[in-house]
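Hey, quick one: can you model this chain's 3D structure?
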Amino acid sequence: MRIRTAVASVGIAVTAVAGLSAPAQAASWKSYGGYTTKSKCIDAGQQYVREGFNEYKCTYAGPAIYPPYTLWLR
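Sure thing. Here's the predicted structure for all 74 residues.
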């Protein structure tokens, strides 16, 4: 009985240490819309950050895609 309890305790301890040493998973970026100018995209991104998102980025999708700037949030 004591051996079973000791083995279970060691197993729990090993699992806890492994869980604490694993790096945290970063939130993935999600697309939240397209904008015709980079300044509009930045304004929208700053507003979303004020409302609770962690960060934003605006990427240029190219001249063939309309609207050319995509807002990403996480």
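One thing worth noting: Confidence is low (pLDDT under 50) at residues 13-22.
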